[in-house]
């Protein structure tokens, strides 16, 4: 994780709980202009990682397919099908590529992401 | 560099040059080919398909190309000067050679009966012969083939396809005396008589008599019969073309043929002979497989090899007049004290005979008529110990035939290309790990294809697991999953993976299952859980582009559009600032739409009477057409109207892969229908249906499936074809690969689609009816459903904010993505 988290973070509202369907991502605009792709998997876990596919530069990961590889929960980019570990953001195709991840929680009515107050 | 001259550009001559080019990597030989026909080599074995819709282009074996090859067509060699080592040709050209290869082939033998040279008398050997027969058949009613052998029956089929009442006259007591015995011939005669062919055996022609116009009109037989016939085709045998060789003093056989030794060398060490022109150890081979074997030996010898030709397998398997006939090994039981095992089931149209050694342990040969399915297993077993009870091998519903794993390494698996099991195992050891790779590197299975199932068995035996598992989550193939879904009535991915899979799925199995569910009719593709299964484009009903924007391609059925609608498309593109481009499928592509703009664009299209179109997804794309009889002075049918009807019938149909189609209004084929999964070409009697074509990485022309269909029949055939494809193809398998991988190939497909050989045609048609009855405009459905509409916002927490990473620049007056794609934030780290 980046050092920015240690300084000043806050939980921001991403969407209503009912809006985030299982295995069906949505994109969220973060303060400072970054974008998170938000997912809820079948076991109820929530994940948020950078929405931008680092291989193409397009902000599309929220529109990818959620699944697993040998038990690792994954998201596959809709563009060139690169696959990432939902928990860590690591690319399964190249160990040097890793997406930023953010903590997520569901308050019961709202899904929230914890982000730095300003852009790092 | 040394000079090589090849006289003859038939199949064997062509194969020889290919084989030589393959081996002569260092470029020692400069090759000149002389062919007397006006065209380059073509597939003479498939000649009769010319009457079934194939063109000269389809039959062509392709051009011999290379910096060191020159081919002269329409030019005949007239003399060989062995002392000077020169060849003179009909154009006066003189060619000098270091080595000369004679691949002059053969000529049909015409018996010298009175009237044999009347107009209306033909032979059946070249495309020119076929054109002459076709011309003569116009206005003719009856045709007679003299000769009831393999080629004679091919010719009889041609006459039948030309619409003639057809007779076959055979001197021997039964049909195909060279390949099959009396019992087999009796069944064959019964089956071809059922097709309307009149068979006369044990009799010969004594004279062809002219009618009042001087053309052939009657044929007298030695049994006193006089047949009325407008056309006579002689097909009683072949004679090697050895006249050039005789004239220059080369040794020839007593009954013709240029004498060669085991190295394919003639009595002159500088001259080789191959194919039907050659006479080897007392035999002239009239089949392609021995010719190919000689071509390979000759090419090997000319490049320093030590290969030998020691005789060849004359096994054959073919479909004559729609009847399977196969003959292999010692089919006639000429081996002393050999034993026969025969199943003669005339009621079920099957005859099978095995010839065994005197102790009944070794297979020597056999004959199959009616059902030659066992040929691929039995033929390579010749000379090997039998794996079990011989009767069980040829009894239907008996024990399944033993696989290729029982064969010794020396057994020839592909007789067309002389590939042994040892060759295949060696190729597998060098990395050919699936059937296509094996075919590519050994040529096995690339001619008649009958050994393809054996290739798969040998891969398995070599320990190569050809897994059919879709991915780690399902051990099943797509076809199996489809059957599971059909049988169990499962309607969700969650239920399917819980009952038949493991884990949570992935980008392979989710779209595959989504496609299966959609093919079987499961409501809107974005209903409920299905939305999360859909692949990139289906997920938002538009084509995602590299920068995350989408293209919208309004459906323009058949490519026909009014000026008003054309203007509307222009207005929409202008209003949303979209880049426009004309597509290859007769549509207009509108690019650069942001996710949240899609519903507004669709609404404008719906308002103007359009629907957005499937320019994406594994579904029907377009049905392209020409203007047909409405405008074109050459058109013979209304291709545009048919294309519109087909596109509207099959739109929205989800399949294992994309489906493209086209309709051409005449044989000029301006709609390029033969490059499509299904292509329709007008004839003056109806429509010809072609299937299995594609462009792309490996372009392939579609094959003719059925001819002269009425529109309603045509649509029934396409319904069956598409549904059979959807039911049985693998994931992402185009129709071409599906047909090529199918056991029995195009013949089997025709049997299922045209003749309803599996008895499933009604069910396939009903499935298509369900599809057409339930089709709705998927994009209009989204506009009418707030839940689905909610998917079309970029940011859940900022619905009115566009994606800031999407930017455009202007190129040639249109917006295009800023390149390189702007990376808004660094997201990767070392």
Automatic annotation (TrEMBL), chain A:
Keyword vocabulary terms for this entry: 2Fe-2S, Iron, Iron-sulfur, Metal-binding, Nitrate assimilation, Oxidoreductase
Alphabetized PROSITE patterns for the sequence: NIRD, RIESKE
Signal peptide: none
Gene Ontology terms, MF aspect: 2 iron, 2 sulfur cluster binding; metal ion binding; monooxygenase activity; nitrite reductase (NADH) activity; oxidoreductase activity, acting on paired donors, with incorporation or reduction of molecular oxygen
Record-annotated Rieske domain positions: 12-113
SUPFAM superfamilies for this protein: ISP domain
Superkingdom in the source lineage: Bacteria
UniProt EC number: 1.7.1.15
Name of a matching Pfam family: Rieske_2
Top-level EC class: oxidoreductase
NCBIfam families, per the entry: nirD_assim_sml (TIGR02378)
Protein name: Nitrite reductase (NADH) small subunit
Lineage: Bacteria, Bacillati, Actinomycetota, Actinomycetes, Streptosporangiales
UniProtKB/TrEMBL annotation, chain B:
Biological processes per GO annotation: energy derivation by oxidation of organic compounds; nitrate assimilation
Domain Nitrite/sulphite reductase 4Fe-4S: 617-753
Enzymatic class: oxidoreductase
Protein name: assimilatory sulfite reductase (ferredoxin)
Keywords of the record: 2Fe-2S, 4Fe-4S, FAD, Flavoprotein, Heme, Iron, Iron-sulfur, Metal-binding, Nitrate assimilation, Oxidoreductase, Thioether bond
Species annotation: Nocardiopsis algeriensis
The protein's assembly and partners: Homodimer which associates with NirD.
Region (Disordered): 801-830
Catalytic reaction annotation: hydrogen sulfide + 6 oxidized [2Fe-2S]-[ferredoxin] + 3 H2O = sulfite + 6 reduced [2Fe-2S]-[ferredoxin] + 7 H(+)
UniProt domain NADH-rubredoxin oxidoreductase C-terminal: residue ranges: 315-379
Family: Belongs to the nitrite and sulfite reductase 4Fe-4S domain family.
Classification via Pfam families: Fer2_BFD, NIR_SIR, NIR_SIR_ferr, Pyr_redox_2, Rubredoxin_C
Taxon lineage: Bacteria, Bacillati, Actinomycetota, Actinomycetes, Streptosporangiales
Pathway: Nitrogen metabolism; nitrate reduction (assimilation)
Cofactor note: Binds 1 [4Fe-4S] cluster per subunit.
GO molecular function terms noted in the UniProt entry: 2 iron, 2 sulfur cluster binding; 4 iron, 4 sulfur cluster binding; flavin adenine dinucleotide binding; heme binding; metal ion binding; NADP binding; nitrite reductase activity; sulfite reductase (ferredoxin) activity
Domain of life: Bacteria
Function per UniProt: Catalyzes the reduction of sulfite to sulfide, a step in the biosynthesis of sulfur-containing amino acids and cofactors.
Domain FAD/NAD(P)-binding: 3-279
Feature: compositional bias, Low complexity: 801-811
Positions that bind siroheme: 670
Needed co-factor(s): FAD; [4Fe-4S] cluster; siroheme; [2Fe-2S] cluster
Positions of [4Fe-4S] cluster binding: 626, 632, 666, 670
Domain Nitrite/Sulfite reductase ferredoxin-like intervals: 545-606
Enzyme Commission numbers on file: 1.8.7.1
Domain (BFD-like [2Fe-2S]-binding) ranges: 413-460
């Amino acid at each position: 994780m980046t050092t920015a988290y240690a300084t000043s973070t806050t939980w921001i509202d991403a969407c209503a709980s009912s809006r985030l369907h299982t295995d069906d991502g949505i994109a969220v605009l973060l303060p400072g202009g970054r974008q998170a792709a938000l997912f809820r998997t079948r076991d109820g876990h929530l994940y948020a990682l950078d929405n931008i596919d680092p291989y193409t530069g397009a902000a599309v990961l929220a529109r990818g397919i959620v699944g697993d590889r040998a038990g690792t929960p994954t998201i596959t980019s809709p563009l060139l099908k690169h696959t990432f570990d939902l928990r860590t953001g690591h690319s399964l195709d190249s160990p040097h590529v890793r997406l930023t991840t953010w903590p997520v929680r569901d308050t019961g009515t709202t899904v929230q992401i914890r982000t730095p107050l300003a852009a790092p | 560099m040394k000079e090589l001259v090849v006289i003859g550009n038939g199949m064997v001559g062509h194969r020889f040059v290919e084989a030589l080019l393959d081996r002569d990597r260092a470029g020692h030989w400069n090759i000149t080919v002389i062919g007397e026909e006006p065209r380059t080599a073509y597939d003479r074995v498939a000649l009769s398909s010319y009457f079934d819709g194939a063109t000269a282009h389809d039959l062509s074996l392709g051009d011999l190309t290379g910096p060191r090859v020159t081919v002269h067509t329409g030019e005949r060699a007239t003399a060989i000067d062995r002392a000077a080592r020169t060849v003179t040709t009909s154009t006066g050209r003189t060619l000098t050679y270091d080595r000369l290869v004679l691949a002059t082939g053969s000529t049909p033998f015409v018996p010298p009966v009175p009237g044999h040279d009347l107009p209306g008398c033909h032979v059946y050997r070249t495309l020119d012969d076929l054109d002459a027969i076709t011309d003569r058949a116009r206005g003719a009613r009856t045709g007679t083939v003299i000769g009831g052998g393999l080629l004679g029956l091919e010719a009889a089929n041609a006459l039948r396809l030309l619409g003639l009442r057809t007779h076959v006259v055979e001197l021997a007591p039964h049909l195909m005396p060279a390949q099959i015995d009396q019992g087999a011939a009796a069944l064959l005669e019964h089956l071809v008589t059922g097709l309307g062919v009149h068979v006369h055996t044990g009799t010969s022609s004594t004279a062809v008599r002219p009618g009042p116009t001087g053309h052939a009109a009657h044929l007298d037989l030695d049994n006193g019969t006089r047949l009325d016939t407008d056309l006579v085709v002689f097909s009683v045998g072949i004679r090697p073309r050895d006249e050039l060789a005789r004239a220059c003093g080369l040794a020839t056989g007593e009954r013709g043929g240029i004498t060669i030794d085991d190295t394919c060398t003639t009595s002159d060490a500088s001259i080789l002979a191959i194919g039907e022109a050659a006479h080897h150890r007392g035999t002239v081979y009239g089949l392609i497989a021995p010719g190919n074997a000689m071509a390979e030996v000759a090419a090997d010898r000319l490049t320093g090899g030590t290969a030998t030709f020691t005789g060849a397998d004359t096994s054959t398997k073919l479909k004559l007049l729609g009847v399977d006939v196969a003959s292999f090994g010692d089919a006639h039981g000429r081996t002393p004290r050999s034993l026969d095992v025969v199943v003669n089931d005339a009621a079920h149209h099957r005859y099978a005979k095995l010839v065994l050694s005197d102790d009944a342990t070794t297979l020597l040969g056999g004959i199959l008529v009616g059902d030659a399915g066992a040929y691929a297993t039995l033929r390579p077993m010749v000379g090997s110990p039998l794996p079990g009870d011989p009767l069980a091998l040829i009894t239907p519903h008996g024990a399944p035939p033993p696989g290729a794993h029982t064969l010794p390494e020396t057994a020839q698996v592909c007789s067309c290309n002389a590939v042994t099991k040892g060759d295949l195992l060696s190729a597998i050891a060098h990395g050919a790990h699936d059937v296509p790779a094996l075919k590519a590197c050994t040529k096995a299975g690339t001619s008649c294809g009958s050994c393809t199932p054996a290739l798969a068995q040998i891969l398995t035996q070599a320990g190569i697991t050809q897994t059919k598992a879709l991915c780690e989550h399902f051990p099943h193939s797509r076809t199996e999953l489809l059957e599971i879904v059909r049988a169990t009535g499962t309607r969700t991915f969650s239920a399917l993976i819980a009952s038949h899979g493991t884990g949570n799925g992935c980008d392979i199995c989710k779209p595959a299952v989504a496609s299966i569910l959609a093919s079987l009719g499961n409501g809107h593709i974005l209903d409920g859980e299905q939305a999360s299964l859909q692949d990139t484009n289906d997920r938002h009903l538009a084509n995602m582009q590299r920068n995350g924007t989408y293209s919208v391609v309004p459906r323009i059925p058949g490519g026909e559009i009014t000026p008003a609608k054309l203007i509307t498309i222009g207005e929409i593109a202008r209003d949303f600032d979209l880049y426009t481009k004309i597509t290859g499928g007769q549509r207009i592509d509108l690019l650069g739409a942001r996710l949240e703009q899609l519903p507004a664009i669709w609404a404008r299209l719906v308002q103007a009477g359009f629907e957005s179109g499937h320019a994406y997804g594994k579904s029907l794309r377009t049905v392209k057409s020409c203007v047909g009889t409405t405008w074109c002075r050459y058109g013979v049918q209304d291709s545009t109207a048919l294309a519109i009807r087909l596109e509207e019938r099959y739109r929205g149909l989800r399949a294992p892969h994309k489906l493209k189609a086209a309709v051409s209004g005449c044989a000029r084929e301006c709609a390029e229908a033969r490059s499509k999964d299904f292509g329709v070409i007008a004839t003056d009697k109806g429509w010809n249906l072609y299937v299995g074509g594609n462009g792309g990485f490996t372009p392939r022309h579609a094959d003719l499936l059925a001819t002269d269909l009425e529109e309603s029949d045509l649509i029934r055939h396409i319904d069956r074809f598409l549904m059979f494809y959807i039911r049985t193809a693998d994931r992402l398998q185009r129709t071409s690969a599906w047909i090529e991988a199918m056991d029995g190939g195009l013949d089997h497909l025709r049997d299922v689609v045209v003749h309803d050989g599996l008895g499933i045609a009604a069910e396939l048609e009903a499935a298509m009816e369900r599809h057409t009855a339930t089709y709705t405009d998927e994009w209009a459905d989204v506009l009418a459903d707030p839940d689905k509409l909610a998917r079309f916002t970029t940011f859940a927490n900022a619905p009115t904010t566009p994606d800031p990473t999407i930017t455009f620049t202007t190129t040639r007056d249109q917006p295009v993505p800023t390149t390189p794609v702007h990376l808004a934030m660094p997201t990767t780290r070392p």
